[in-house]
Amino acid sequence: MGAPPPSAAIPEPVEATRTLRVGQSGRFPRSTCSGAPTRFQPTRIRMARSWIMSASILLLALACTPEPPVSDPFDPAHAAEGLALGPPAFDVPRAWSGVDVPFPPSERPWGAIREERIRSLLGPAMSRAGVDAWILILRENHNDPLALHVGGENAGGQAVFLFFREGEGEEARVRSLAISPGGEATALADVGLHDEVVVPDAGRSALDMAAEALRASGAGAIAVNSSALAVADGLSHTLRLQLERALGADLTARLVSSEELVVQWLSVKTESEIEILARAAEITEALELEAYARIIPGVTTDADVARFLKRRMAQLGVGDAWAPDQNPNVNSGPDRGHSHATDRVIRGGDVIQTDFGIRVWDLWVTDIQRFAYVLAPGESAPPEAIQSHWEAARRGSRAAFEAMQPGVLAVDVDRAQRVVMEEAGSLPVFWNTGHPVGYWAHDVGPSLGGSQMSRTPSPHAQRALLPGHVFAFDGFFSWPIVEEGEEATKTISVEEMVAITLDGARWLVPPQEELVLIPQR
User: Fold this and answer.
1) CB 159, CB 139: distance < 8 Å
2) Is the dihedral of CA 268, 273, 276, 278 positive or negative?
3) Cα separation of 501 and 62, whole Å?
4) What is the DSSP secondary structure assignment for residue 435, as one 8-state letter?
5) Is the Cβ–Cβ distance between 47 and 120 less than 8 Å?
6) What is the pLDDT of residue 181?
7) pLDDT tens, 487-506?
8) Phi and psi of 9, rounded to 5°?
9) Which class for 302: exposed (0-12), middle (13-18), buried (19 or more C-beta within 10 A)?
10) Do residues 356 and 309 make contact, with C-beta atoms less than 8 angstroms apart?
11) What's the Rg (C-alpha) of the chain?
12) Helix axes 271-293, 302-316, angle to 10 degrees
């Protein structure tokens, strides 16, 4: 899953506001002015030389008039220049037809969504986790992984945020207290995210004041960010020692890991977030189909397809959902797992996997796979075996979809698909059926796996699904192939995105029903 090194033959992405391209040397665009700028020989008559130079520059400028701006800066034809791709061979939905980027930075809704998440979701999450209070220590240059989620992303000097649970169950709410140095405290108060913002008294630290507030609250279980789960592990050894000294033995004895709280809170997304993810998923799928439509069998490489998608991402102003070198992962050959696209030439008879995700507003991510079959010369449809493999994978996907109900254990969703795989004669697949997706491609929450042969379900596979969970999940079918004399496997793992509702799973984008067929040219 990744993009190969950039090639000098590939043009820069088209910019929406561009009116002039400037070459690497001189003042004139190389695209319309070939050769080096004219050099004028000095003469003995200074005024004549000046006039000649001025006139020549004017003529050269007229000859080198820059290209007019493109009428549609998001036309994918411009992104395909310099790649071994052709014009679309079939119609596909456009990923975005607006004049501006689909997720403009000026409209980033995170402030309102974050406040809603704290006000409506954090209390119930603390209740499910059995936590009375949560303490986070924020600081610049090595901040807590969850700083953005609690409003501490701009921490300078050491600050402490406290959340106190009030009430029980799904009706629980939180009261928040931010103890911050003076400069940052003013900004925190302006944001209005916390119920109270205070500045430490002279001679007292934020940790000392936090200890006093915790003692006064009578909190039992106090969550701290120490965990084997990376996103809940923001408390360094040094900070832990500082915290324990400030709390004293009695409060230190009440400290528990925040892991369960963090999973319960971050795994549930609001309706606004789910709608954002649905919009992003629609664009993700459309971009994959755009790329497939341009493939020229026998000419286009996997890397060409990946570079095309990178160009389209740049045009639309979206980022990578995971490591840039492995997004997108375009693979027309044997299974490679999480990997980068190679220079393998796509040819007739190939089954192509594209594993692709985008990041929007620098926060929410998608993870979708689409599969295509390259028609061999004389073919108008896939061979019977390939079509059978596809239909088996689709049945497995739908079995997992039907199993995704609130309260169902994640491992049972995985098991529902494994039954279909065995009945269809698939080779074993060690990958999980699915995983949470949202803030990261592999987000926190229930893991849809654990029923693979000889595997003991992890604690996350034994979690129950809740409304508001969002998953990326696969329908599997794997079979043996031979590539250049070597035995290997090929796996269809068409990946979809869904949100869990009170009534079951809901597709964020319509699922792939048929293989994309790529014709010969």
Assistant:
1) yes
2) positive
3) 63
4) E
5) no
6) 92
7) 999 999 999 999 999 999 99
8) -80, -5
9) buried
10) yes
11) 28
12) 140
Work out the burial of residue 112: count CB atoms within 10 Å of its CB; fewer than 13 is exposed, 13-18 middle, 19 or more buried. exposed
E strand or H helix at 384: helix 384-403
Q: Indicate whether 315 pLDDT > 70.
A: yes
What tens digit of pLDDT does each residue of 60-74 get? 443 444 433 434 444
- Rounded to 10 degrees, the C-alpha dihedral 399/402/405/411 comes to 0
Instruction: Please tell me the least confidently modeled range out of 8-12, 243-247, 404-408, 484-488.
Output: 8-12
Beta-strand (E) ranges in 180-271? Answer: 196-198, 222-224, 255-257
The amino acid present at 95, given as its one-letter code, is A
3-state SS string for 465-497: CCCCCEEEEEEEEEEEEEECCEEEEEEEEEEEE
| CA nearest to 357, candidates 242, 254, 478, 509 | 509
- pLDDT higher than 60, residue 358: yes
The answer to whether 433 and 471 have CB atoms below 8 angstroms apart is no
Q: Which amino acid is at 309?
A: L
Residue type for 191, please? Answer: V
Interior/surface letters 384-415, b for 16+ CB within 10 angstroms, e for the rest: eebeebbbbbbbbbbbbbebbbbebbbbbbbb
